[in-house]
Structure formats: C-alpha cells, structure tokens
Amino acid sequence: MKFLIVYFSLLFFICGFVAVHGKILRQRFVLQDAPYTRLCGSKSILTVNGKFPGPTIYARVGDTVIVDVINRASENITIHWHGVKQPRNPWSDGPAYITQCPIRPGTNFSQRIVLSDEIGTLWWHAHIEWFRATVYGALVVLPNLGDQYPFPKPAAEIPIILGEWWNSDIREVLREGLQSGSDFNASNAFLINGQPGDLYPCSNSDTFKVKVDSGKTYLLRMINNVMNNIMFFKIANHNLTVVGSDAAYTKPFTAEYVAISPGQTIDVLFVANQQPSHYYMASRPHNVAGNFANTTTTAILEYTGNYTAPSSPLLPTLPDFADEVPLQFHSTAAKLSDRGSPH
C-alpha cells in the first residue's frame, strides 16, 4: 500500500512538473496553391500560408504545438514533423497511409506536435507524393527559459534551408519518373531559403542576404530539404563550428565546410571576423552516380559599416561533386553526437 501511495504521488508530481514547464502553442497552416517566379518563369506551387519556404515554428523543450491544417488544395496532404519523437502520438506524425490518413481537399485536421527532449533545429514537410519540394519549413526548439546554450550565445539565429526548384510542375516530375522507372528529372536549381542565388538567370535581385556586425557570433540553423543529394555548404573565408545536429547538442568541432544529408539538420556557429565586405555562402551537391544538377546556389553575407562593397562577393571553393569528404565529415559528427538520426 505504501508503495502505491509513493508511486502515484511521484506520478502526479511528474505530471504537474510537465504541466508547469510545457506550454501549449497553436499554429494555423493553410495549404493552398500560390504563384511563384523563379529562373525567369512563373508557375503555381503548393504552399503553406502562401509562403515558400513555409513559416518557422518556434517552441521550447517540452512544449506541445497544435497545428490546425486546413487543406484548400486539390490533393490529399499530410505534414510530418521531422525528428520529433511524438511519444504515444503516431496519428499526428504525418506519413500518409502509414501512421496517418491524408487530409482530404476541403477538410481540416489538427495535428499535435508533442516535444519531449528534442532541442535545436528540426523541420516539417509534406509527407505524400513529392509535395515536400515546396511544402516545408523550420521547427526550432529553444531551451527552457533560464537555460543557456552550451556554446557562446549568438547575436542572431538564421534558418538556412536548402531546397530545389523544378521549372516543370512537380506532379509531372513524379509521374514521368514513375512511368519511366529511371531517375527522376534533375531539378533546374538548388535553393537557399527559396532563392537560387545570383549565379542563376533572373535571380540576382532576390538572392537571400544575411547582414552581420564585425566581431559578433551567429548561429545558422541548417536544414537539407533537397530530395536526394548530400549538400556541401561553405562561407567564403569563414570557418564553421558545428554545435548541434538533428535536435541534439554535439561536442563542438570546426570545419571549413559542412556536408549535410537529405533530411538532416545541423547547427553551426561562425564569427564575423573577416575584413568587412560581401562574401558568398554557397552550396552544391555531392553525387557519385545518377541524374543530378551540378550547379551552385548562393546567398550573400554582408558586413555592416562603411566600406566599398566589391563588384562581386568572394566565392568559396567547395569540394568536387564526386569527392568522398562527406564520409569524413559525417564520421566526425557521429563521434561527437550521443544520438542517432531522426526520421
């Protein structure tokens, strides 16, 4: 009897602790087609709230996020919370016809994101057909109030989402690939935060830019939404210090570049310690076989202050597309992390 009293007292204490420290947050996701222009042409793509990439969700460790998904598209849809463990909550996890029925056109469904010990960068994306190509966004899990990062506090945190753009309708890309039984058509561009960068045609004015102050430290929350390629990423003349991966802290290690796999997230710090100027942030694929686009997407790192900007930012030298250095990078990262990769 005493054992039962102690057991239930402890259970009620734990439940009360979670209730105090975990908040319930709410988001509204409207799935709808919207017109977008890239690479000199326009087309309609499936979006969340008309945004591409979609909105970033911010929460804290132990929070629960309820996302009201309203499907105004003409296709079935589901949203997957990539890397969230979802304890005892598989029906909100998102994989269509596996743990969850799709959300039909003209209907709504409230998906529940139950956060437990995840911390750092995760992401969300469509989990049916190939709609992940345009339906995706960041999910940032911050420390509890009063807790500190186990690394220098950054002056700013910037989500960096790598993606792809097809000039063709993504539905046709999927259909043609399934009918042929061969590789899917390669994308026409890689993207950083939805923009190809000014090395591609008709893209100069919309290149994604990050402004930094000399001497300050910044945190990039990196996500690879590219369908099938490991991606190299590098900032000209700036080292990157990896401090987290897949919603867990890692022991810090510094590298000239990162190699990030499809679906993976990596948190990296960099210090704005170079001569004030403009520097390219660049990304290109790693691929040793198959059909892929051997092109480079860019964003621009711009220092604040008074100086004469260069006519063109400095471009970093990235590893060759067939280089095996991703194996070395991933081996180092795995040794410094306590967790396996999320799904």
UniProtKB/TrEMBL annotation:
It comes from the Eukaryota. Coiled coil: none annotated. One of its GO terms (biological process) is lignin catabolic process. It holds the Pfam family Cu-oxidase_3. The keyword Repeat applies. It is found in: Secreted, Extracellular space, Apoplast. Its EC number is 1.10.3.2. Belongs to the multicopper oxidase family. This is laccase. It comes from Salvia miltiorrhiza.
